[in-house]
Amino acid sequence: MAQQYANKQPQGFKNHVEKVAIVGGGGQVGKFIVDELLKIGKHKITALTREDSTSKMPPGVEVKKVNYDDPSSLVEALKGQEVLIITMAVTAPKEQQTKLIEAAAAANVAWVLPNEYGAWPVLAHGMALTLKIVRLLFLMMATLALTPALGLKLVEQSPSFLA
């Protein structure tokens, strides 16, 4: 099949993601990602926060409170999202990221950018993985492929959040 460019696609075609969910959007790393995605202006950003969180999000960011002990709470918050970016603190419980990845799979989120960029930390916990989770883990290892879709550029192999 011949390569087709975006400008040759039918009306309504998009070559970037729009719906981005972020965990840790008010934290030391996440707040910069949120700010830059807002500057780009192509994304609908949803911040997932704990029910007891007092983090403030900038205007233009939808906030969904979640309960990490209730998987349906996570799945419901992730429904309709195209990307999940996880930027939790190192002090977050280890199993929290696993719960988020499982919920993302259940909600059919296509892309997950985890705290660590590979499968070994999840596999080391002895987790029984379903095919959906394995698929997500392979997608995580290819997160740099998503960088252009978010409107980001690479500088010396590191994401540079410049529009």
Describe this structure in words.
The chain has 163 residues and is of the alpha/beta class. The chain has a domain at 19-113: Rossmann fold (3-Layer(aba) Sandwich), CATH 3.40.50. 29% of the residues lie in helices and 19% in strands. It contains five helices and seven strands, in the order E-H-E-E-H-E-H-E-H-H-E-E. It has helices at residues 30-40, 71-78, 94-106, 120-124, 131-141, and strands at residues 19-23, 44-50, 61-66, 83-86, 111-113, 153-155, 158-160. The strands form two sheets. The protein has a five-stranded parallel β-sheet with strand order 3-2-1-4-5, with helices on both faces. A two-stranded antiparallel sheet has the order 6-7. Helix 1 (30-40) links the parallel strand 1 (19-23) and strand 2 (44-50). Helix 2 (71-78) packs across helix 3 (94-106). It is globular, with a radius of gyration of 16 Å.
